[in-house]
Amino acid sequence: MELLFNAPKYLWMLPISILPVLFHLYSKRNYQTINWGATRFLTAAYEKHHVKLKISQLMILLLRVLMIMILILLLADPYIKFSKSISFSSNTQQIHHVLLLDVSLSMGTENLSRAKKEITEYLEKSIDHEVVTVLLVGEHVEFLHAVDRPQKLDLIQRLKEVELLGQELNLPKAIELSTDYLQQIGAAYVQLSIFSDSQAVSRSQIDSLDAAQKRMKKTLPNVKIYVKVFPFIPSSNNVQVRGITFEQNIFKTKKSYPAKVTLNYSGKFSREYSLNVYLATKLLYSEKVLVQPGLQEVNILVRFQKEGEQRLKIEITGDNYIADNTLYKVLQVDEQVNVLYLLATTRENRNVAVLKKALLTPQSFGEKSFFTFTEIELKNLRTKRRSYFDNFQVIILDQWELLNTIDVLNLERFVREGGGVWILPPYDNFAQLAGQQSIKNLLPGKWNGESINLNNPGNFSLGKRPILWLESLVLGKSNTLDGIEVQRFYKFTPYQSSNVLLKVNDNPLWIIGRLDRGYTALTLTSLDASWGNFIQGNLFLPFVQRLVAYLGQKSKPIDNLISGEVADVRIPFSKGWRPNVRFGQTFSKSKDLPIRRHSRMWVGQSLPSNDTGFYYIFDKNKSILKTYAVNIDFNELDDVSGQLNRWLAGQKESGVYAIPISESMSQPSAWGESIYLWNWLLIIFIGIMLTELKLSTRRKTL
Amino acid sequence: MLNPLKKLQHEQDELKQLQIVARNIAEGIHFGLNQSKMKGFATDFSEHRSYTPGDDIKHLDWKHLAKSDRLFIKQYDEERSLDACVVMDASGSMRYGESGRTKLDFACSIATSLARLLFSQQDHLGLMVFNDHDNLWMPPGRQARQQNRLLEKLNNMRALGAASVGKSLSQLEKLLHKRTLILVFSDFFDDITILGKSLQILRHARHEVIVIQCIHPDEQKFDFKGGAHFIDLEDRRIELDCYTPELKDAYLAEFLAHQHQLSRLLKKYKIDLLSLDFESNISLQLRKFLEARLGRGK
């Protein structure tokens, strides 16, 4: 269990909580002096009550300090994260070192010899009772030794004889083999180290590697695995990056890098350039250099700045956070496999945030241009934009991403706060990309609308239509429909803690699972043409209704439920960007529209109409206070408040949809048994206030 | 802010005003106030009593003898001069109050008024001032010299140190040889038990005691704001820091308990109590008190 804060910057205000103490001391210094005659009664009163008075004074002081602290903590928006961490029974348990040595041709003799040298040093440094296993990884994977517990000297001797082997690096296979081996010998504490040049790891391999590692963790649930990748720089002495030469020695020692190197670059990136920037920054202790493939040219300014003596700060400035009218926010960097997760949204469809996965490996660049980020230093991101991202609570995954992510509900890494219904968009994105053409025209074949038994979704089937595999559209180059292809997947594997609500041919269609704070539901929509048609057709809406009814534990489906893309916009009290409605604002012309702190405003978009939005104002118990259906221009999501106000000012009757959604959404069970820490803090705060009131009353009657 | 000289002048002016007030009060109400309880043979007939052998026959009521053939003696009210004594508490606690309007200033103003009143009636008046620094005893008298000295003392009195009213009254009883009217000016922030014993002795000796209690409104209400550092006026070593609103209720409880005890004690010995109200007219208070006493005497 971990206590985290959504806005930790407010914790800097904690020293303010000692203000009452300072005031107390200050007021004590400023006591008026009174020459007093009736001291007899005063001293008698004081002697009788001074203990009580001292205690009550201290209590009041403490309560005041606590009140301020709690207020600050409330501002910092705390929450508890429950994590399943693997714990070791003892630190003294034997450590198994597994060293994977890349012997593919891409390493070259020079890198191989350097790697061998490093492994030798590694072996020499290891403690006698620790077990070291070395695997040679090329196209095939083999152990460097035949016995279970090889001697150090034997390993070092064998290592000298190792030569370059296969064409490619089969890292997933190596990890699988290691897993079996570790399982066999009953390892409890494992350090996995990979000695490889990162160029050799392809995108597909990274995916496989990711999967293999997960398998390793599943197979050896009590094993803690450290993975360390040793990247190697190119063999040349100097690294040329667009006319700027990085001397190799700057990569070797921490102290010898230049204090300030500026790269000014405009235009398309070359693979070499990207590689070198990546490696340079990587070796210059910036572990946050991220590369996203598949995006158009980007203006980038990379600035290396000396920060202190030991660290190098890399600052990326300029308009690098916008590309092709797309805004990006880096969500997560998986440094073990150099994978970057990005949340992207577009100007055209800002209520949809799409999760992107990008790799950091050079091979995945191909001839494409790419995009560089730092996780922390998105300097010029305007506050408004930043808040915009911060306020997204519902992320809509696109099918392209989903189908490449096998564990579809393993989303903790992406989203800290779950809850609500996550609905994947159907082929709308494709339709938009194809110039507003309907997907039906793009895909061969049609589903003729076999009946679906909605009363029993668990046994849902597509009638007599056999589906042997799941098909997915995979985007072509540059995320366009050019070169779009259909890939077939035979199996989707939901995360083990998730519930599959609905299956098709043993593949999950509707899945719900628990994230941190509530239930999350996913639907896999990119199946085949028929499915696409189905989702766009009349049956999709009842489907969503059924899902929501299930989550809300309602006996019957809810009518007129909206579907499609729903963004939950949280209204933060303290942040700069507040969508639309000001805190505590009352709309006189439409009676009340109360917004309280942490009220939730849902901006909904209905199908098939694209220009109608819904506002749902929730209170903290998730009960809907008010529902509005108004015409919203979703291209102007930043100004939803303006739109709403204009609409209210004009007293227009939208009347597009009446939404009795409150029945379904107001059930607490639909939101899980969430622990909202700030709720508790609020209760404590009120308790303190009451205590204070009681104390002051007691003082009066003393 | 006034400089010290001007401040002194200001205080003296105020005192003079009070003296004028006292004189006016005295002149306004001084006639025929002291009706003696002694029976004698002067001009005002009071009653008859039976003749007993040894009585002077010149006091026989001859007319009554002629009518009833019984012997009666005529008795008359005798007017006698009164012996009075002002007992003034000059302890530090009497110094509380604004400059020129301290409790002692008020007490002295009233004492001066009464002194003028008594002297104008040819009564004898003495003065006892007590505190642990300086005790003064002037036996009752009515000579001009006595009058001047007494009034001067009342005008130039200083409050210092601690004092015990009870002990001082015990001492006074030893000094008085005749039945005397004792006017006690004090705040009575003293031990009630000792005071009770002293009053008992005085009453036993048939002295009449009038208590004039001087309490400042601040002491009655304790209406301070915020924290305060209190220094005892009688013993400056006693200091106390407190947040006054918190202590107010407890203080008032103690104060009222003491007042209750005092009033019970005075009631027990049938002693009149005049509580000085600093906020209302002094002459009016004094007039009411005297009229009340006069009424009771009749």
Give the SSE map.
The complex is a heterodimer of chains A (702) and B (298).
Chain A: E1 2-5, H1 19-29, E2 32-36, H2 39-75, E3 78-81, E4 95-102, H3 108-125, E5 131-137, E6 141-143, H4 152-160, H5 171-185, E7 189-195, H6 203-219, E8 224-230, E9 238-241, E10 244-247, H7 249-252, E11 260-265, H8 271-283, E12 290-293, E13 300-307, E14 311-317, E15 322-323, E16 326-334, E17 339-346, E18 353-359, E19 370-373, H9 383-390, H10 399-404, H11 428-433, H12 439-442, E20 470-474, E21 485-489, E22 499-504, E23 507-514, E24 519-523, H13 529-536, H14 540-551, E25 566-570, E26 600-605, E27 612-618, E28 624-631, H15 640-650, H16 662-665, H17 677-701
Parallel strand pairs in A: 4-5, 4-7, 7-8
Antiparallel strand pairs in A: 1-3, 5-6, 9-10, 11-13, 12-19, 13-14, 15-16, 16-17, 17-18, 20-21, 22-23, 23-24, 25-26, 26-27, 27-28
Chain B: H1 4-28, E1 39-40, E2 44-50, H2 62-68, E3 72-77, E4 83-89, H3 103-120, E5 124-130, E6 136-141, H4 144-155, H5 165-175, E7 181-186, H6 192-204, E8 208-214, H7 217-221, E9 227-232, E10 239-243, H8 244-268, E11 272-276, H9 282-297
Parallel strand pairs in B: 4-5, 4-7, 7-8, 8-11
Antiparallel strand pairs in B: 1-3, 2-3, 5-6, 9-10
Question: Could you give a short description of this structure?
Answer:
Chain A is of the alpha+beta class and 702 residues long.
What does this structure look like?
Chain A is of the alpha+beta class. Helices cover 30% and strands 23% of the residues of chain A. Chain A has five domains: 2-81, no CATH class; 95-230, 3-Layer(aba) Sandwich (Rossmann fold); 242-381, no CATH class; 399-508 and 521-539, no CATH class; 566-671, no CATH class. In chain A, a hairpin with a 2-residue loop joins β9 (238-241) and β10 (244-247). In chain A, α2 packs antiparallel against α17 (677-701) and α5 packs parallel to α6. The longest helix of chain A is centred in the first third of the chain and has 37 residues, at 39-75. In chain B, strands 6-5-4-7-8-11 form a six-stranded mixed sheet, sandwiched between helices. In chain B, strands 1-3-2 form a three-stranded antiparallel sheet, covered by helices on one side. In chain B, strands 9-10 form a two-stranded antiparallel ribbon. Helix content of chain B is 44%, strand content 21%. Chain B is elongated, with a radius of gyration of 23 Å. Chain B is α/β, with parallel strands linked by helices and 298 residues long. Residues 18-38 of chain B have low confidence and may be disordered. Chain B is built from nine helices and eleven strands. Chain B folds into two domains: 39-77, no CATH class; 81-297, 3-Layer(aba) Sandwich (Rossmann fold), CATH 3.40.50. Chain B starts with a helix and ends with a helix. The chains are: A alpha+beta (702), B alpha/beta (298). The interface between A and B is medium-sized, with 28 and 36 residues. β2 of chain A pairs parallel with β9 (227-232) of chain B.
